[in-house]
């Protein structure tokens, strides 16, 4: 009976070791992120790098993480937009910007370089009186002829601005978001905004991006590679939590 019990314990231990030793699929690595190359190549220029798409796929026996970008360059009061094809990125960089779809992840304007993700233009176009001004947004109540403020002050680009056509195609930028973004950025944090229902106004988790980039969300949902990646993240997070709980339990023993 004792021998059988020992054999059972050894079998269980072997299974645990095997499970713990199982590693997730390795990923393709790059020696330098595209964003860093861009910073070097456009040194002295005003530009923003916008994350326009993300993907996880398989390349041989490895996971391949990719980004698509828009490069916004300001030249002589005109905005030039370059849309790039897929660029491979390191897994850690991919995870860092998973919530930043549709946002600037790198920008350099007026010789100020920033690697903090933010809503597009909030650091250089919105709030710049050379290109526009703040005005009260009003909407007409369908039951009366009176106008009422709905969102506070909103940014309006001047018709004479080279950036006018671009911002007219985008959703409104509100002063409260602009001001809060500045506070967040000053402390090194990304501002995603917050709607009345508590959801994000900007980035991957916003309703705006879900409408605008439905193809991305469908691909993320249906991709087996992406599901595998998401599962590995959850497992890693669970392991860290359980490890921390175990440590707290051991350190919090009863005195004798």
Write a structural description.
- The protein is of the alpha+beta class.
- It has one domain (25-205).
- The protein has 8 helices and 8 strands.
- The protein has helices at residues 2-21, 34-41, 91-96, 164-168, 175-186, 207-212, 214-222, 224-251, and strands at residues 46-59, 62-75, 78-83, 87-89, 104-109, 112-114, 132-140, 147-157.
- The strands form 2 sheets. Strands 1, 2, 3, 4, 5 and 6 form a 6-stranded antiparallel beta sheet that branches. A two-stranded antiparallel sheet has the order 7-8.
- The two termini are 34 Å apart.
- 21% of the residues are buried.
- The model is unreliable at 17-22, 140-149 and 244-256 (pLDDT under 50).
- Residues 131-140 have a biased composition (Basic and acidic residues).
- Residues 141-150, 223-249 have a biased composition (Low complexity).
- It comes from Flavivirga aquatica.
Number of helices: 8
Helix and strand sequence: HHEEEEHEEEEHHHHH
Radius of gyration, Cα only, in angstroms? 24 Å
Structural class: alpha+beta
Low-confidence segments, ≥5 residues, pLDDT <50?
Answer: 17-22, 140-149, 244-256
What is the makeup of the main sheet?
6 strands, antiparallel
What do the pLDDT scores average to?
Answer: 81
Counted up, domains total: 1
CA(first)-CA(last) distance = 34 Å
Strand proportion, as a percent range, falls in: 25-35%
In which range does the helix fraction lie? 25-40%
- The counted number of beta strands is 8
Shape: globular
